[in-house]
Amino acid sequence: MQGAIGHSMIAPWLQPQWDGINLAACPNALLLHGQAGIGKADFALTLAKALLCEVSQNGNKKPCNCCEACRWFDTGNHPDFVALVPETHRRFMPNEALEGADGEPTPSKKAKAPRDDEGDSSEKKEKKNIAIEEARSAIDGLGIGTHRGGNRVVLVYPLEALRPDAANTLLKSLEEPPASTIFILVTNRLDRVLPTIRSRCRLIALPPPDRATGLTWLQQEIASRPDLTVSSDELETIFYEQGGAPHATLDFLSAKQGQNDKDELFISIQASRYLLKGLSQGVRIDWLDVAEKTHKASFAVLLASMQRWLADLQGSAQANAVRFYPKHAESIEMLAKQVRIDKLLRLWKAVTQARRHENHPLATRIQLESMLMQYQQIFSD
Q: Is domain 260-377 annotated with CATH 2.60.120?
């Protein structure tokens, strides 16, 4: 996160949700949920900064970006801001500096995290989960008063990264919230959040933008990034492939521009493209080859791509509509005439269930082979 975090960090498609929050009467716990890549992290950080801003203003005009509290927040040094995130998401934090509840860097947070999101390398594998030790370290100091005499904000992002024991530790704090402490919980997958945690939060659904708003925003962002070059047609194709998520589209373009064959996002992009090429073959898919060429990529990305493809198949078959992959519309429409809907729906259910465990260290290749083999079979009796 670079520069000051202010109103510009609220994406235009999220402005109604921002306007609906009363900063002067904020509940103890907010649960922001929505699709990955739509700007939830920026929204959550702007909200945290606004709650810590010390300038008296009306309504949601905060943060002022001028007071001492705002300046501390931007540099990652606000003593009343606690960020509980895994290593894979530290790049989203202000100045990439994470603080413990006591205002001092915790031992596990002193090292600078690599820039790639959810990246693995031969030298180091970043942690994708939040362990109980980290949760305890962040929460233990919440019983004491705040350093500045105002609010304390605890940000947990993404919430689904909490291990079960860490989630239970958080739950105890939500059941008896410390004075002047506001929890901001952020999740891409509301279905993975414990019902007991959900019931103690005010839920705020953050939607993706419509096509015109999302593409306009992307064009403005790309215009300010001389390192990114993309045609209008290619931008629209990627935007659809990323489920209409503008921030995910930017990440895609950055990774593609870098052409870093060790960057997990770039690897996943290439694998996703190869997967789509295989899926477009229908019953003729060489599922062993596709699994061999793609299984080292992020399983989450592969499952999301497959789920979107199946959604387009069903949409084409039942409503003559292709949402995610208009570039492949001709292939999808042809395959939709051959697909067996009952088998398609069973495969959809299997992929959906697999997504609930997509970050677990399971045998990715075996699962992928099984799903691709099932995909081949949805086109035959």
A: no
- In the chain, what are the domain boundaries? 7-205, 260-377
3-class SS at 17? helix
Sign of CA dihedral 25, 27, 33, 38: positive
In the predicted model, is pLDDT for residue 97 greater than 60? Answer: no
Dump pLDDT digits (tens) for 152-202: 999 999 998 888 888 888 888 888 888 889 999 999 989 888 899 999 999
pTM for the predicted model, two decimal places = 0.80
Rounded to whole angstroms, the Cα distance separating 172 from 315 reads 43
Select from 107, 87, 104, 3 the least CA-distant residue to 45. Answer: 3
The answer to whether 326 and 333 are in contact (CB under 8 A) is no
Three-state DSSP state, 219:
helix
Give the 3-state secondary structure of residue 94.
helix
CA–CA gap between residue 35 and residue 375 (Å, rounded) = 25
- Which amino acid appears at position 30 of this protein? L
Helix (H, G, I), strand (E, B) or coil at 343: helix
